[in-house]
């Protein structure tokens, strides 16, 4: 098993594409509109464009790009607060690379770094822990963000800091959860979705049962998918077959990686360290109840919001999108990125207005990377 080449086999892909076409034709005989399938994960969006799957699938299937990019859904106010922490004397702020260039209302973290703030890119919160050990006279803050995929590593780092008594380490927590925004989208009468491709990495942590409500309460099929082209094509076929057969179930295409009940070690760490916020602001979706995580009281000494008197502890701040920027609409699938008036004009990878053009999982970045100037011209 080579784990990659088998999932990129052209002959197998043609067979699955033919099955998709037959099933889509059967569904199309009973309806006028194409089947709208939302891929929740930004990694899936990039894979779809990288392999040209949007061009290969039957015309009766349309991909809708979902809010599964944690950097993209972060509101500008939280970027502003992160910059504010980084600019304080004696602070070393650490973050993942794709958060460095996300614009706030005044500047990005990269611009703050250029202006003199001590901001360092790390590959893991464990790197931030090591910085705290080496710099006992400095406050080391980790910009914790991401869905359930990255949440366990931050939780484990906080547990380790507590064991070591590292009082100069804290986390600016912006971890969020996947099921809640899906429910918000399904409750929106303007969002006409027929099914979902579920996120693979998130599901590796939480399992498949957190999506049961999608099938049970809303009658929509979902297939948790891997990231290779055949993974995605098979997941599309699984969703289409459910629709054709009048079924709504949670299916696991990515069973080689995703366990039904998730990862117990990761889930235990999350439960120990975090609790739900009453609500959290999402870019493009507004406030969503119980969709964000905060650090529990027992680990409050490692909560940067408490330590620096900032963030939700000081009261949420809502910031309007830049003029002409349609990140919210593009991120929730209401428009395609190329329909944004700023795409390729006021917003490019070199000078981004919005996070979707910056992040490695952003829909605008996917359109630009695999369409570039042609997409902008169109």
Describe this structure in words.
With 378 residues, this protein is an alpha/beta fold. The protein has a single domain, classed as 3-Layer(aba) Sandwich (Rossmann fold), CATH 3.40.50. It is built from 15 helices and 13 strands. The strands form 4 sheets. The chain has a 5-stranded parallel beta sheet. It has a 4-stranded parallel beta sheet with strand order 4-3-5-6, sandwiched between helices. Strands 10-13 form a two-stranded antiparallel ribbon. The longest helix is centred in the N-terminal third of the chain and has 19 residues. The radius of gyration is 21 Å and the shape is globular. The mean pLDDT is 91.
Give structural attributes:
Rossmann fold; alpha/beta; five-stranded parallel beta sheet; 378 residues; four-stranded parallel beta sheet; 39% helix; 15 helices; 13 strands
**CATH homologous superfamily placement:** HypD, alpha/beta domain 2
Helix content: 25-40%
Count of helical segments? 15
Say what oligomer this is: single chain
The SSE order reads HEHHEHEHEHEHEHEHHEHEHEEEEHHH
Low-confidence stretches: none
Distance between the termini: 42 Å
Number of domains: 1
The CATH class is Alpha Beta
**Number of E-type strands:** 13
Characterize the largest beta sheet: strand count, sense, and whether it forms a barrel.
5 strands, parallel
Remind me, CATH topology?
Rossmann fold
Instruction: Give the overall form.
Output: globular
CATH architecture: 3-Layer(aba) Sandwich
Global mean pLDDT? 91
Radius of gyration: 21 Å
Largest sheet, order of strands side by side? 2-1-7-8-9
